[in-house]
Amino acid sequence: MSDDIQVQSTSKTPALIAREVARRRTFGIISHPDAGKTTLTEKLLLFSGAIQMAGTVKARKSGRHATSDWMEIEKQRGISVASSVMQFEFRDHIINLLDTPGHQDFSEDTYRVLTAVDSGLMVIDAAKGVEAQTIKLLDVCRMRHTPIVTFMNKLDRECRDPLELLDEVESVLKIQCAPVTWPIGMGKNFRGVYHLINDEILLFRAGEESLQGFEVIKGIDNPRLQEMFPMEMDQLRMEVELVHGASHPFSLEDFLAGKQTPVFFGSAINNFGVREILSALVDWAPAPESRDATVRTVQPTEEKFSGFVFKIQANMDPAHRDRIAFLRVCSGRFERGMKVKHLRLNREVKVSSVVTFMASSREQVEEAYAGDIIGLPNHGNMQIGDSFSEGEMLQFTGIPYFAPDFFRQVRIRNPLKIKQLQKGLQQLGEEGAVQVFKPVQGGEVVLGAVGVLQFEVVASRLLNEYGVDAVFEGTSISTARWVSSDDKKALADFEAALGHNVAYDAAGNLAYLATSGVNLRLTQERWPKLTFHATREHA
Ligand code: GDP
Fold first, then answer.
1. CB 299 within 8 A of CB 331
2. Model-level ipTM above the cut of 0.85
3. Residue 266 within a domain
C-alpha cells in the first residue's frame, strides 16, 4: 500500500515539473532611456489582466484608470519593486518579466539581471534608432546568445525609414533582422501594420486603449483595404516585395541561437502591437533552459530544487527596511518552508518567508519552478552569485562582475567611524553594490563602478545603514583588469613591482588598477605571462 503511494508521488512530480517549466517564459526588457520601456511594460501587464486584478472596477472599463492605479501601486511600494521583477499570466503561460534599470547611468545590476533571463525584449524608439545603452545591453545578451525580440516603438510619430532602421540594427548590433510586422505609414499617416507571416493587416486607431484588440483584415490583396487606403496599399505592396527580397525570413532556430531577431512595429502608448509581442514570447521564446554549474549542467526539469542569486536590493520596502536577494530558480520545485542549502556557507536554511512578484502585489510564494524569480529575505549573509540547492554542491557559473569604468576614493568626515566604514564597504562590496579594491601597498581603498550612480547609492547607504558620512573623491585610476596567471612567480613579481596599482577586490581576486588605457596596454605588454580580464565570475 505504502509502496503504491510512493510510486504515485515520484511518478507524478517529474511530469508536473516538466509541465510547469514548459509554460514559463522569463525575459528581460532592454532599451535606451525614453524609448518607451515603462510604457510597454505597463501595457504588457494590462494585456495579461494583471492590472485589472490589482485595480478597481474602473480599471476594467478604461485603460487610463488602470495606468494610474499601477503607478499608485508602484509608489506605495517604494523603490519600484513593480518595475524590477513582475510575474503574470498570458495564454496559460507564466511570464516573468525582469526590468533592467532604465537610468542613463549604467549599473552592474543591469548586466547581472540579464544572466537570469532566457530571452530579451528590445525596445527601440523608431525615431531615433539604435542608441548607446541598447548597444551595451545587446553586447551582454550576445555573450550568452540570448534570443531577442525587437519592438520598434512610437510609429504614431514621424520615424526613420523602417528599412534603414533594420539596417542599423543589423550593422550596429550585429544581429540579423526578420521583420514579422511591417508598418503602413507613420506619424499622422500611420495606418497599421502588415503581418508578414499571417498575411493580415492590423488597423491602427490612435488613443485605442481597449483590450478588445484592433480590427484585423485578412490578406494584403483584400479589396476592402484597397478601398480604405488606395495610396498606402500600393506603397505597402512595393515595400513588402522589397522586404521579402532584402531581409531574412523568420527562422525559429536562428532566433533561439541569438543570431536573428524578429522585429515588430507598433506604438506602446496606443497599446498597438503589444499583443503580438506577447504572442511572440509565448510562441517562440525559449522556456527555461539548462544552466551550467561548476560540477555539471543542471536541467530545469530535474526534481531537486536549485537556483542562484543574481541581484540584491536593499530597502525595497521603506516600511520594513528589508534587503531582498533575488534568486532565479534553475531546477526542481521550490516550496515554502523547505530546507535548502546555502552552498558558499555550507549551511542549511529553512526558507519560510519568500516573496514572489505578481504584478498585482508582493505575495508569499507557495511554490516556484525553473525560470521563476523568488525573493529571499537577506540579513547580509547572501552575496550575488550564491547558489542554493537541496544538498548537492553545485555553484552556478556565468554571473559576471565587470571591470569598472569609474573610480573614487573614500574619505570619512569622522575618523572614529573607520570601523563602520570598513564593515559597510565590505558588505556593500559583497552585495555587488560597488566594487572595493584594496591596494597591495599603502594607499586607501579604491571604489569602482560601472555607472557613477552607484557611488551615490553607496554614499547614501553608508550614511543610512552604517552611520558613516563619507566623501567620495576622484582618483588617478581610470580602468581596471583582473589579473591571473599559471605562473605564480610572475604574479608575485607583478605585485611587488607595481604594488600601488595592484589591489585585491572584496572577493580576494587580484586586479590591476591602470591610470589610462595606454598605461594598461604598456603593462600588458611588459607582463606577457599574465592574463588581464575585463570580467570575472563569482568566486
Ligand atoms: P522609458 O524611459 O524607456 O521607460 O520610456 P517611457 O515609457 O517612460 O516613455 C518615454 C516617453 O515616450 C514618454 O513620454 C512616453 O509617453 C512616450 N512614449 C512611449 N511610447 C510611445 C508611443 O508609442 N508613441 C509616442 N508618441 N510616445 C510614446
1. yes
2. yes
3. yes
